[in-house]
Amino acid sequence: MQLSLVIPLLNEEESLGELHEWIDRVTKQHGIEREILFIDDGSTDASWDVIQELADKDPQTKGIRFRRNHGKSAALNVGFKQVSGDVVITMDADLQDSPDEIPGLMDMIQKEGYDLVSGWKRKRYDPITKTLPTKLFNWAARRSSGIYLHDFNCGLKAYKGEVVHQIDVQGEMHRYIPILAKTAGYGKIGEKVVQHQARKYGTTKFGWERFINGFLDLMTLSFVGRFSRRPMHFFGLYGVLVFALGFFSALYIGVSKIVRLKMGLKTILVTDSPWFYIALTCMILGSMLFLTGFMAELVVRNSSKKMSYTVGETLNLDK
Q1: Rounded to an integer, what distance in angstroms lies between the CA atom of residue 272 and that of residue 266?
Q2: Burial 24-60 (b: 16+ CB within 10 A, else e)
Q3: Where do the structural domains in the chain lie, given as residue ranges?
Q4: In the prediction, which pLDDT does 6 show?
């Protein structure tokens, strides 16, 4: 298969038919062999009925329906495991991503050799309450990852086919797929200025909490990317440093008391000094950090548990 389109959605019944027709027109015009995979993330409207109608008319239109809402990351993760295209493109189902960008994105993957190309909606039709936090979020992501993209969260992305089979998009990590790809060894990441369409139907499914969750996920990803396979390097290092600080502080307190006693100077009980308890606390915290690192190493080396999702129905899936 030349192209696979993965389209997660939640309550987008009004736009699906128009989107499918637009994709069909563009791909036929450029002679692109394609499949379309809609992931219904627990919609409560007639989105699944529309997908069924589209699949009946077009055997290369496929669908997966979750029994409940799992989130965009789960939808993408399941979709990536099903597609077989040489190029995989993701886009949102609300018509804000333009299918006219498909040929250009494919050229960057196939002809220019990029592993991943992220869309950049330089001109956006969103209120400032959405664009301002997005800019701050993108700045933080660039600084922490070293990947200089303007719009990490753009739903319109293109991937070399092998890339999507090598990454796991868990939690709410769909915002950081470029970082996941880089961590997996796919470092040729670019971006393309794409057209942003004003929302035609419905309302956005994301609220302010996505920005808070986004920054928390970024911190998690930064830690996991560096220490997921070697947690002792983080916990053990800081555990040893904190323990050493407490130990040498306690040693200093004890030695200084002995010296003062030898010199006949007045002194107090060690347990009457607040610094003794600070030193003792540091030693306890250091030991706990070290043990945490040790236990994390055991978990990493022995854990093979994978996330699972409750898929209720599928359409036209060969796998």
Answers
A1: 14
A2: bebbeeeebebbbbbbbbbbeeebbebbbebbeeeeb
A3: 3-226, 232-302
A4: 97
Give the architecture (CATH level 2) of 3-226. Alpha-Beta Complex (3.90)
Could you tell me the CA-to-CA distances from 257 to 15, 75, 272 in Å, in that order?
A: 78, 65, 12
Nearest of 132, 213, 212, 146 to residue 181 by alpha carbon: 146
| Most confident option among 18-32, 165-179, 257-271 | 18-32
d(CA 214, CA 133): 10
pLDDT of residue 195: 84
Q: Nearest to residue 7, comparing CAs of 49, 55, 41, 52? A: 41
Q: Collect all residues with Cβ–Cβ distance below 8 Å to 215 and sequence separation of at least 6.
A: 137, 140
| Separation between Cα atoms, residue 104 and residue 106, nearest integer Å | 5
CA distance 149 to 138: 8
Look up the pTM and report it.
0.70
Pairwise CA distance, residues 315 & 79, whole Å: 12
Residues with Cβ within 8 Å of 103's Cβ and at least 6 positions away in sequence, in order, are 26, 30, 32
Backbone angles phi, psi at 263, to 5 degrees: -85, 0
**Listed range (70-74, 98-102, 213-217) with the worst mean pLDDT:** 213-217
Strand, coil or helix: 162: helix
DSSP for 175-237? Answer: GGHHHHHHHTT---EEEEE--BPPP-SS--S--THHHHHHHHHHHHHHHHHHHTT-THHHHHH
The amino acid sitting at 242 is V
Q: What's the rounded Cα separation, in Å, for the pair 121 and 138? A: 12
